[in-house]
Amino acid sequence: METNEVVGEVSLCKVCGERTEREIDFPIMDGKGGTRKMKVHCMCRCERERKEAEDRRLAYEEEQRQIDNLKQLSLIDAKSRNVRFSTYQVNEENAKVFGIAKRYVENFPEMYSQNQGMLFWGDVGTGKSYTAAAIANELMERLHPVIMTSFVKLLQDMQGFDNDDGAYMNRLNRAKLLIIDDLGAERGTDFALEKVYDIIDSRYRSGKPAIFTTNLTMGQMKECTDIRYNRIYDRIFEMCYPVKFSGLSWRKREAAGRYASMKKILEG
Question: Is the pLDDT of residue 236 over 50?
Fold first, then answer.
């Protein structure tokens, strides 16, 4: 479809009415410095808008590719890959930790610059891992590289990493945020505890933040008399702001809901 029309000697867009050509002075290569006027195409408003829309589309597709790549490298498990703040079931018991998690993401550039991490602690099933996964996914949506894994998996992986712990830790420390789930679930052997400390200390020395989750209580960590554990906990407390998760576990809450539903159906 023809979109231009000529008015006098001026070419205009039929849709927006703006010029589609302009004259510029081209040098004449005759050694005398002369010029001649030539008409060249210029974008009217319609063309600019089409180009801007195409640029936005390409930028969006590139951003989505980057996000997909980050998710593939994040080590996050499949069941946690789609967790978002928008899917978070907020109630009286978790409203505070939900707010903390959102503010951490919103202020991540400052958290990152200050090497500020968090320690999620509390009973089993109170939403620590879910909240950590939500933070990971929200940050990856903003193109921040995040790795989320567990100490159990880290120890398994390190055994097959050509015995080069430094190279493996450097790989972990390339992420802007390292999230390690379930501190305390790893076997308490001297070897395992040494590796756990090395991972945490390496992260501390990298100057980048980390988030840890644990079912241990604050008392168990602060009052521990075993020096092997003490230095692990001390390093974590240096890096992390402690956040307590409390309330009924989600599994117990769901079981109670199912019981009430079945009771109503079966007993009337």
Answer: yes
User: 189-213: per-residue pLDDT in tens?
Assistant: 888 899 899 999 999 999 999 999 9
Widest CA span in the chain: 104
- Residue 31: its pLDDT value, please? 72
What pLDDT does residue 7 have? Answer: 45
Q: Are 157 and 194 spatial neighbours (Cβ–Cβ below 8 Å)?
A: no
Here the tokens at position 28 are 């004449």
User: Which two three-digit tokens encode residue 82?
Assistant: 């789609």
Euclidean distance between CA atoms 239 and 92, whole angstroms = 28
Domains parsed from the chain with CATH numbers: 1-71 (no CATH), 74-252 (3.40.50.300)
Name every residue whose Cβ is closer than 8 Å to that of residue 263 and which is 6 or more positions away in sequence: none
pLDDT tens string 46-75 = 999 998 888 888 877 776 676 676 666 666
Backbone angles phi and psi of 37, in degrees to 5: -85, 135
Sheet holding 117-122, edge to edge: 146-150, 177-183, 210-214, 117-122, 240-245
Q: Which residue is associated with the tokens 């998760």? A: 245
Tally of CA atoms within 13 A in the half-sphere of 182 that contains its CB: 14
How many whole angstroms separate alpha carbon 14 and alpha carbon 74? 51
